[in-house]
Structures are given as structure tokens and as C-alpha cells.
Specification:
The protein has about 425 residues and is an alpha+beta fold. It is built from 16 helices and 16 strands. The structure holds adenosine-5'-triphosphate and magnesium ion.
């Protein structure tokens, strides 16, 4: 044990569990890569103003959870708390939107940082895979993203997740609703902080989890009754397209998200086995974000799925991912000469695309065979002086327990044939 520990709210991904995280990232990005989304990577930190303006000063993410700091050079930076603002910033900076091919479809995978109260499923460093479709107002794009997330979760074997869907209206109808909601909230008996929230971002009050607040919210004006015709038609089309794809969802009129930039389509993926940290992913349309960060009007839609909570969801459902053993062949050399020869064979196997590993550290037969077992390899290749004198190695099938000599020169072909 070292004198140091992982910082509070963080944890390390360590074998053998870490392969699950790789598999989840792979499963989420697969459907995106298969649907015209290009890979984008942006820095882990940005100008703090990007998030302050993009995500919103009044959000918890910016007001409480951001790791903001000043550099030695005097720059005000923040570790990224989310991906959308960065991806849009990068797309605008590279003028991707000017190349006449809207929407620009991008996917990303990385680490995000929020100064939260750590608990199961809520960390200060976590990882997301996300997708953004920038520069088109088309309900089919909203539907595409929801369908692809559903496909990703299903491909992992998840079943007990639900898709919650809502429309938050646009710059025509939302202000009217906001006003009506504020009028209603002013008549309630709320604590000081909630009253302040009601003034800055009244929609967020609807999302308050406390029972005494929820009780008072009965009879609150609902956004659905204020949606303009364009928003209503748009939302109906999104619903129809998802329904036609056979993807089940629930209309959730109270669904709002913790970021200020959302408009129209808003959705969340929740898993019922996770307790209070039930959101495994979320997203929606953000038609005004580009202008908020100084760009042109670029109506866009996206989502981010949490990798950590997806792994927890898999565990909650008892899903065992079908992950092949990392190593196919494990070489065990007995003696110096055998060591040199087998090390060469391992290199040859690897160059032929066969996953191979070697018994290092000069162990005896027993210890080395233990390592071979632990590696999960299908075959062990064992050789000592006598085998080499005969120009063979012993190829042991670890599943069947059978062992037979194979000519040294034929080893790679023989292993390849048996693995096929
Ligand atoms: P929550 O309501 O649980 O705080 P959020 O609305 O802040 O979630 P988003 O910003 O939409 O979450 O991020 C998308 C996904 O990223 C979430 O659904 C969740 O799976 C994951 N996520 C967000 N914050 C954390 C965190 N602190 N630790 C682990 N995963 C997180
Ligand atoms: Mg949050």
C-alpha cells in the first residue's frame, strides 16, 4: 500500500473488472459509429466561461459542482463537467458547420469532473460516452439518437431500463409557460433556496424530489398545455418515429434536466435497479446553445450515457458480459534455451494476431502453469531442453486437458487452426 489513495469520490478501474468498462464504451459507441457519427476528442479542461454560459450559471453543475481554477498564467479554466458545450465549441472552432454537410454528427468518450457529494453511482470523476448531431432541426434526428441509445443498452443485455420523454418547448412558448409557473410557485410555501430557484429556473422546481414540495406542486401548470403548435407537431413526430421503431418510452411531463440549454425534445434513461442514482443517461435538443456561446443558430440534439452507472445497472440485473479471455496462448519455458525459443514463438504468434503471453520471472513448471491457468488462455505451450532437441513443443489444450507435441515450425498454423 502506498501512502496515497485515490482522491475522494474517485475510484480506479482495475483488471479484471476494467474490461467491463471497455465493453460498455464499445457497446455504446458501436451503434453511433455505425450511423454516421465521427469520433471527436476535446481537452479535459476549457475556458470556465464556456460552461458558465453554455451549461448555465444557475445550474448545480456550474454553481456548485465545477472544478474551476486559475492557471499560473492567469487563465480561468475548469475541468469539463459535461461534453456538449466542448463538442459544440470545437465544431464551431473548426467551422465544421460551414462545410455544407449539416448535421455534423459526432461521438465522444471520456472523463468528466463534478464536485459532488460522493455516493454509490455518483462520483467526482466519472465517464460518459456521448453523441451530438449539430445543425439540423429534424425530428428524425431526435428519434435516431433515442433509438441508438436503446440499441446500445439492449446490445449489452440490459432490460430493466426505461426511456422518459418530454418536450420543453422553444423560445416562443417556454417564456409564457415560465411566467405562468412562476405565478403558481409564488403562491406556495417554499424554503428560501427553492424560492430563489423558482425565480432563476422555475422548471427545475418541478424536479424537486422532496415529498412536501411535490405535494404542493399538484395542480401546477404543465408545459404540455402551453406548447406552441410547432413544438407540439415536432414532439408528435418524434414520438411517432420512436414508436414505429418499436422502442417503448414513457411520457413524463415533469421531466426537466439539470442543464439550461435544453429545448423541445428532452429525455432520460433510467434504470430501476439503481436506487436514487437511477439516471443512466440523458439528453435532448439544445437549439439555442450555439448562440449562447457566440456561434450562429445551429439547432442540435445529443445525449450522454454514463459508463459507471451502466456498469452498475449490468450488475444490478446480473448480466454477465460475454468477454473473451484476453490471452489465447500462454507459453511456459523450462530452461534458458527454451526461454529464448519460446519468447520468439510468442512474438511470432502476436504478429500473427493471436493473443499470447509468456511466463516471466523464471518460475518453475508448477508456478508457470498456475499463471497459464489464471490467464484464461485456451492453450499452453510448454517446452524444455528435450522437446527442443526433438524440434517440438507440447501444446496443451487447457479446456480438454489434453497435450500433444507439435513441430516448432508448425506451431503458429496449428494454434490458428485449432482456435478457428
Ligand atoms: P443526476 O440527475 O443523477 O445528477 P445529471 O442530470 O447530472 O444526473 P447528466 O449531466 O445528464 O446527468 O449526465 C448524463 C449521465 O452521466 C447521467 O445520466 C449519469 O449516468 C452520468 N453522471 C452524471 N453525473 C455523474 C456522477 N457524478 N457520477 C457518475 N455518473 C454521473
Ligand atoms: Mg447531476
Amino acid at each position: 500500500m502506498s501512502t496515497f489513495k485515490a482522491p475522494k469520490g474517485t475510484y480506479d478501474l482495475i483488471p479484471p473488472v476494467s474490461v467491463k468498462y471497455l465493453a460498455v464504451r464499445e457497446a455504446i459507441s458501436g451503434p453511433l459509429r455505425n450511423s454516421g457519427y465521427g469520433y471527436i476528442e476535446t481537452p479535459g479542461f476549457e475556458d470556465v466561461g464556456l460552461f458558465a454560459r453554455g451549461v448555465g450559471e444557475s445550474t448545480d453543475i456550474v454553481s456548485k459542482e465545477m472544478y474551476a481554477f486559475e492557471t499560473k498564467g492567469g487563465d480561468q479554466l475548469a475541468l469539463r463537467p459535461e461534453g456538449t458545450a466542448s463538442v459544440l465549441r470545437a465544431a464551431l472552432e473548426a467551422s465544421l458547420h460551414k462545410q455544407g454537410n449539416l448535421p455534423v454528427k459526432l461521438w465522444y468518450s471520456g472523463s468528466y469532473y463534478r464536485y459532488e457529494r460522493p455516493q454509490k453511482g455518483r462520483y467526482r470523476h466519472f465517464s460518459q460516452v456521448g453523441a451530438e448531431a449539430i445543425g439540423a432541426e429534424d425530428p428524425a434526428l431526435d428519434a435516431e439518437l433515442i433509438i441508438l441509445a436503446d440499441q446500445a443498452y439492449r446490445s449489452l443485455g440490459l432490460r430493466n431500463f426505461r426511456i422518459l420523454l418530454n418536450s420543453l418547448g422553444d423560445k416562443e412558448c417556454r417564456p409564457v409557460y415560465r411566467e405562468a409557473l412562476q405565478g403558481f410557485l409564488r403562491g406556495l410555501d417554499l424554503d428560501a433556496e427553492t424560492i430563489r430557484r423558482a425565480e432563476i429556473n422555475p422548471l427545475r422546481v418541478l424536479d424537486d424530489k422532496r415529498a412536501d414540495v411535490q405535494k404542493q406542486l399538484v395542480g401546477a401548470p404543465m408545459l404540455r398545455d402551453y406548447l406552441c403548435d410547432a413544438c407540439k407537431a415536432y414532439h408528435e413526430e418524434v414520438r411517432a418515429l420512436i414508436t414505429a421503431a418499436g422502442v417503448a418510452f414513457e411520457d413524463d411531463e415533469k421531466l426537466v434536466r439539470g442543464l439550461d440549454y435544453y429545448t423541445r425534445t428532452t429525455f432520460e434513461f433510467v434504470h430501476d435497479g439503481l436506487g436514487s442514482q437511477s439516471a443512466v443517461g440523458g439528453g435532448g435538443r439544445y437549439d439555442g446553445l450555439s448562440e449562447m456561446i457566440g456561434g450562429p443558430a445551429l439547432p442540435s440534439v445529443g445525449w450522454a450515457l454514463g459508463v459507471d452507472r451502466t456498469v452498475l445497472a449490468l450488475e444490478a440485473e446480473g448480466v454477465e458480459l460475454d468477454i473473451p479471455a484476453a490471452t489465447s496462448v500462454f507459453a511456459v519455458a523450462l530452461g534458458e534455451e527454451a526461454r529464448r525459443v519460446l519468447f520468439g514463438k510468442v512474438t511470432e504468434l502476436r504478429r500473427a494476431g493471436i493473443a499470447a503471453d509468456f511466463s516471466y520471472g523464471g518460475k518453475g513448471l508448477k508456478g508457470a502453469m498456475k499463471d497459464a491457468n489464471r490467464s484464461g488462455a485456451r492453450f499452453a505451450v510448454v517446452a524444455g531442453e528435450r522437446d527442443l532437441a526433438e524440434g517440438v513443443v507440447q501444446l496443451k489444450d487447457m479446456e480438454a486437458g489434453e497435450q500433444s507435441p507439435v513441430a516448432l515450425a508448425d506451431l503458429v498454423d496449428e494454434v490458428r487452426a485449432r482456435l478457428a
